[in-house]
Design goal:
Blueprint: E1 2-6, H1 10-22, E2 26-30, H2 33-42, E3 47-51, H3 59-68, E4 75-79, H4 84-92, E5 97-100, H5 105-118, E6 127-129, E7 132-135, E8 140-143, E9 146-148, H6 152-163, E10 169-170, H7 171-178, H8 189-203, E11 208-213, E12 217-222
Parallel strand pairs: 1-2, 1-3, 3-4, 4-5
Antiparallel strand pairs: 6-7, 7-8, 8-9, 10-12, 11-12
Length: 224
């Protein structure tokens, strides 16, 4: 597995390089955002460990550019900023997970393993189900009757449904895709989010519907 580490703190970058190499990963290290983006553009990495505060180009901008250029390697963001707003901003930029500094190496490798199991899920520029168009790049979902105002997690859920339209998705699949490693949501959080998404789809008269598959999960279909 080839992992790109983009970290400007030389000591931390060296520690990550040594530790991940010892764990069996092939590591490429960049110390600024511009070099990190170049490496991501030139090589298909299995995962990217990306600091937010970088010289040249921020980690958020690197992540946005990767997604705009259809580079879908899973991204684990590292940051010293731990507010909810910062986490949402990182996820909205296209990151897959978020790790607050200082962190334990064991937690980092656990999160990295989870991302590698998930793999790079290629997201096309636009996904259509019925009259609903979901744009992963702009993180917008709209019908001819308006744009649905989804929260960050609701959008991630809608994107997952749209990408796998017609397939039955289990609750554990939805949880793994939408909620990060450290989350401990309530047991009914999936049902609550699905109910909210249904209301918002109804508000823009979407013909894409999320239907319940009793005892299994949910799926998105295009209604007649």
């Amino acid at each position: 597995m080839h992992v790109l580490v983009v970290e400007d703190e030389k000591n931390l970058a060296a520690l990550l390089d040594r530790g991940l190499t010892a764990a069996g990963y092939a590591i490429t290290v960049a110390h600024n955002g511009i070099d990190g983006l170049w490496h991501a553009q030139e090589t298909a990495f299995d995962a990217v460990v990306l600091d937010i505060m970088l010289p040249g180009m921020s980690g958020l901008d690197v992540c946005r550019r990767m997604r705009e250029e259809s580079i879908w390697s899973p991204v684990l963001l590292l940051t010293a900023r731990g507010s909810v707003e910062d986490r949402v901003e990182g996820l909205d930029a296209g990151a897959d997970d978020y790790l607050l500094k200082p962190f334990s190496f064991d937690e980092l490798t656990a999160r990295l393993r989870a991302l590698l199991r998930r793999g790079a899920i290629q997201r096309p520029s636009a996904l259509s189900v019925g009259n609903l168009v979901v744009d992963p790049a702009s993180r917008e979902a709209a019908t001819p009757f308006g744009r649905a105002e989804f929260t960050a997690r609701e959008f991630d859920l809608v994107e997952l449904f749209a990408r796998r339209a017609g397939e039955v998705l289990r609750r554990d699949q939805m949880f793994d895709h939408v909620w990060d490693f450290a989350s401990q949501p309530a047991s009914n959080v999936i049902d609550q989010h699905v109910a909210s998404v249904r209301r918002k789809l109804g508000a823009v008269r979407s013909t894409a519907e999320i239907v319940t598959v009793r005892g299994v999960g949910y799926r998105m279909i295009a209604a007649d």
